[in-house]
Amino acid sequence: MSAQKIKLANVLQAPIISEKSTNAADQNNQFVFKVQKTASKLQVKQAVELMFNVKVESVRVLNVKGKIKRFGRSIGKRSDWKKAYIKLESGHSIELATA
Question: Where does 3-88 sit in CATH, by number?
Answer without folding.
Answer: 3.30.70.330
